Amino acid sequence: MNAPLLDRRTFLKAGAATGALSLGMTLEASLQDARPKPRRTERAILVAFAGGVRTKETLGTPVNVPNLMRMANEGITYPRARTANLGHFGATLSLFTGIAEARGIRENARGCDPTLFEYVRKDLGLTAGEVWISTSGGTQQANYSYSLHPDYGPRFGANTVDGDGIFNQEFKGILEAYGRPREMSAQEEALLQRMRDAVESRGEGGVNGSKTLSDIERYVLQELTSGTADLRGTGASDAKALRVARNLLAVFRPRLLGIVLQDADVAHGNFNAYVEVIRRNDAMIGELWQAVRSDPELADTTSIFVLPEFGRDADLNSRRGLDHGDASDNLNYVSIIAWGAGLRRRVTVQEEVHAVDVCPTICHLLGADARRARGRPLPKLRA
Amino acid sequence: MARAANLDSLDSWTLRALHLDLLGRPPLSTETERWCGRNTSELLEDMLGSDALWENWLEEQFFYFFLVDNFRPADAEILSLKSELGRGSIGVLQALYRIILSTSFDRRNPGPDTFVTVVMEQILGKNVQTEGKTLEIGKHIYDGSPGNFLGKKGSSQADVVRIAIEDELAVRHFLLREHRRMLRSDPDPKDLMEWTRRLKGDDRAFSPILGEWIDSAAYLCRLSNRQPMPNRVYVRALFIDLVGRLPEGKETQRMRSALDGLSDSGPLRSVIARLLLDSGTAQLPSKEEITDPTAWIGALFERLLGRPASEAELAVFVKSFHDPVCRPETILYAIVSHPQYATW
After folding, report:
1. Does residue B114 belong to the interface with chain A, where contact is any CB pair within 8 Å?
2. How far apart are CA B179 and CA B176, in angstroms?
3. B327 to chain A: closest CA residue
4. Which one in A157, A245, A292, B55 has a CA-CA gap of 20 to 30 Å to B24?
5. Which pLDDT tens digit goes with each residue over B67-76?
């Protein structure tokens, strides 16, 4: 199902209508400044194709992933990326921190090590509106936004949106039952802001400043009516995460965008559904890739990285599904596909790398320092 | 554990905090009228055996195990837990045993590897990466083979759960996480050992232990340590504070899930607050009915932020109130959309 693509023009127009446009005008003016730019990575998209996905069902079965195959053919592939089976939550977190550490599989807590989102925001001086994560796994995955590290934390966190948690028919229905909020005049908005500012703070602080908060408030209301809530079926949570990511890209044009998938874990009990999820995700990644390529500014400045957090067992279990615990190469090695501005093309690097290398690689490309990460920038990456 | 010296007379903030901590919602207006100025121990006696307390406790356990949305237990034997716990016919460990053996928990954690891992991590507080052998034994027992798990014999999925729940580590881990939830601090190791002994002897002893926690100096520290509200509590607080009732169960669940999907739920919280205020269901006087705006705004600060308004705050709010475009809703929206409202 094709939901309409949110676009920046409509978003900014809506912002102007509610009297909140100063930042938007600045950004739009800069977008119109179309001087030619050298092709180098100024934006990065990291797709954690998580939930446990073997290379055997991706690059090993090209018919499942025609878009990833094209991306690999136009980019650079690392087919021997070592991972650690730390549970989905811990292993995915390790992609973002560059440090492989065990976490409980139902643990609902932040990590102690900074994430690449924090490194990038802090070192590049970015606002939270420029760094996003689109997830499909609900509450637990909001913990990827930032760490408990005293030098980083919420003031350098990413905005996280869980597509399935927010953009679903039930929540939409509940909101609709209460009607639409009454539109405030510019004067009333100003009064409201004055009163909010007058409340004496007791040390409360969050990821966003007040301007970004109102931009996100408008974005959420728009996305609720965009059709994302209508995505259904096997792999719908992942599909929503990828659709939301595409819309975030169009509306906020983030410098760093993380996407966390997880529906492939249906493999525990159903191999066919697992393959179906992989195929659907490939199609949605294709949409996202196309959105980047069809936008001249994004095409010249964006790099995309795709990798699972780990693979799955070599053999089917008794329920004709695939678990993840046999310590086989199918589980321990995944493929990394990288495509983008300033990266090498049509290259396969056979040497062994690590999944935790992706965090320092992206930081390095963007000009940040993943100073606590234990991975190293991927070799032979740049053109 | 040191007792608190000054929890004897309930002020509005302590009353609000106790309700939020124990019932997961602020007091209704009738409860505020009933309890303000009275003794904490009377309120505790009233709360500790109530279905509302155990309903909230169960919700916290469901969330801890991520049994939410499609995985939320709906079996009769789980739904009856709150009244059984309230009557004292079963204790907390027995309730956990039933939750873990529910079909919802099984669906949430399918297969031996996931199931036993979650039991070891969530019930026993173990790190499975360093206890691979125990995990393998647990998986074999789950699959029906006999084995020795944590020093006890078993041969079924139910045995894995029973052995885990009966283990002293499980009791200790439960008390530790509940203490952190209620008091926002780690307990003294000696106290923890003593509570573990008592709860292992009789798992209905959790109520009196909870009472001791609230009546302690540690709870006074918690009262001075405001933290961001979890989204479920925020939704319930907003409904009571704005429309004078609790949200329906489905409303709470869906709103919480949506809010939980954002690392900064502030924008969506504002959307929900604004929807409620503009829906016509909020219990608000008209502007003409507010004859003393200073008193009205001051009372809102006390009720919603749990503190008096400063002179500077009152000056800005009262001046704004007199602006023709300002509605009572605007005042209320400014308060409930401020991050301070979402702390407790």
Report:
1. yes
2. 5
3. A188
4. A157
5. 998 899 998 9
